[in-house]
Amino acid sequence: MKKALALLLTLVLLLGATACSGKPGEQNETAKPVRDTVTISTSKINQYDPFESYTAEQFNFMNCLYATLLYIGYDQNGQPQLVGDLAKSWELENDGAVFVFKLAENATFSNGEPITAEDVKFSLEKSAASPYHAGFTDMIKGVEVRDEHTVAVDVGQFNSSLPWSWNHTYIVNKAAYEKDPEGYATDPVCSGAYTLESLDTATGNMTMQRRDDYWGDMPQIKTVNIRGFNDGNTSLIALEAKEIDARLVFGTSATQLSKNSEIVLDPVPSNSLGGIFINCTAAPWDNVKLRQALAYAIDYASIMQVLYDGRVESSSSIAYKSVKDPMPAGLHEYAQNIEEAKRLVTESGLSTPIDGGVLIGGSGGPGEMIQQYCAAIGINITTSDLSGGDFVNAIMSKSYSLCLIPGANAAVRGGNVLATTYASTSGSNYGGYSNARVDEIAAELAVETDETAYQAKLKEAMEIIAEEIPIIGLGVVQNYIAHRAELSIPTSMNGEYIIRLWKFQ
User: Fold this and answer.
1) Distances in Å between the alpha carbon of 307 and those of 364, 411, 475?
2) pLDDT beyond 90 at 38
3) Confidence at residue 19, expressed as pLDDT on a 0 to 100 scale
4) 143, 173, 203 — which closes off a domain?
5) SS3 163
6) How do residues 357-402 score in pLDDT, each as one tens digit?
7) Quick one: how far is CA 70 from the chain centroid?
8) DSSP conformation letters of 455-505
9) 88: domain CATH number?
10) Is residue 18 part of a domain?
11) How far apart are CA 424 and CA 25, in angstroms?
12) How far apart are the C-alpha atoms of 477 and 55, rounded to whole Å?
């Protein structure tokens, strides 16, 4: 209350000072103060530990409180580029097998302690060991502290996808985290631009304040309020009522907001890959013919309309999205063909009706549609709407048959799509798909420097995947950041918020 009163008094004084300045009868163009507080909406966050982050909502929260070595920005032509954060420079050693990062020497934590290479080493190793960060940092073989501000990261061999995938490796205070890991999640010692002033874990509401001692470029936004919404419609109403300033939207929400002239819809480079993930490790879906049959049973245009209101970047039946590498040309695409689907069910050797198990994440309209597509070719499935941690745990433990994911993260390079989504050794291969040649190509692309050879090998792997169809693609959703017109938001990966770069005009 005292802070609110002080802020109100400060604002009154500022307005009084500007009203009395200038010559009598003249309008002062600087009278309008620039806002320094932003309120955004998000779905309720269930986990605040930086090493157990896996959703965009968590990333938006973490990006305020924690520094990373690098982050992904975009140039004026919309091309992705690596931007130094805590790392002010970096170079390769040992033919690209070792990344050497020089850290900002003036960087400090919110408790005043310097951010050192030991903190970075600890954070990288914790991230590499986390199942939630699997596929992004698990290639780290070792981390060496060269000096207080130099850290060397050994990844075993040159990998063309690195360090693009390290923008979610958050730097924590080693001593404080080790002392109380559970407490650190909700009362962190921050390495980023903001500190956590208040947090209501029951509602997901929180307030973050800009650090006066922040070591990087000082943000314009001083106060960040996050309001947790479990109801997307309520969040949209709050945006149109000017109760919140920004939120990530897609599909029907984007269509609704496009009618409001006071709201700007900024398309952002989408990394949201929709698909039906198939558990390839268990019957009946370990049968390739049955997976192909389902791919032919689906009415893609209809389900994309329901999922995204038709707002998609691409509508491919192949689950693939890379920021830098387009889908290889000439891949086999699936379109609805019920007769072909029934023929493949017969070729599968399975007797109908087939028990297709449980579809998770698909209750409601999309789930019923998939249920109907299956029934049309003699496959019976049930739906279960798990959410939050239960949904993630079911995926990671492969305790499902089919899983509808409207927007899974893809990758920057095509080789990284293979390594994280389709390689049998990846912790992010949630369907347990395995193909020896795909594994070989994923490993080869990590060290391939010839671009022509790179694209040829990528196409070979994707042709195999298009044939074996471990994931049925449901398009790449077009994401938008919907925000007040006076707020300027730089382009960011998949609509993730880097609030320290936001500005009111």
Assistant:
1) 11, 22, 10
2) yes
3) 31
4) 173
5) coil
6) 999 987 678 999 999 999 999 999 999 877 666 777 787 778 899 9
7) 15
8) HHHHHHHHHHHHHH-SEEEEEEEPEEEEEETTEE----GGG---GGG-EE-
9) 3.90.76.10
10) no
11) 74
12) 16
Nearest CA to 323 among 406, 407, 411?
Answer: 411
pLDDT reported for residue 20: 31
Residue 492: is its pLDDT beyond 80?
no
* C-alpha–C-alpha distance, residues 265 and 252, integer Å: 13
Boundary residue ending a domain (173, 205, 223): 173
Residue 3: band (very low, low, confident or very high) from pLDDT cuts 50, 70, 90 = very low
CA distances from 68 to 50, 171, 364, 379, 478 (A): 11, 6, 38, 47, 26
Share of the chain above pLDDT 70, in %: 90
Q: Are residues 150 and 81 in the same domain?
A: yes
As a whole number of angstroms, the longest Cα–Cα distance in the chain is: 91
| Residue 352 belongs to some domain of the structure | yes
Domain of residue 384, CATH code: 3.10.105.10
Neighbours of 233 (CB within 10 A): 11
What the block records as the tokens of 7 is 């802020």
Burial of 340 (0-12, 13-18, 19+ CB in 10 A): middle
Q: Considering the domain boundaries, does residue 47 fall inside one?
A: yes
Range of the domain at 349: 272-477
Q: Check pLDDT > 70 for residue 22.
A: no
Residue 41 has pLDDT above 90, yes or no: no
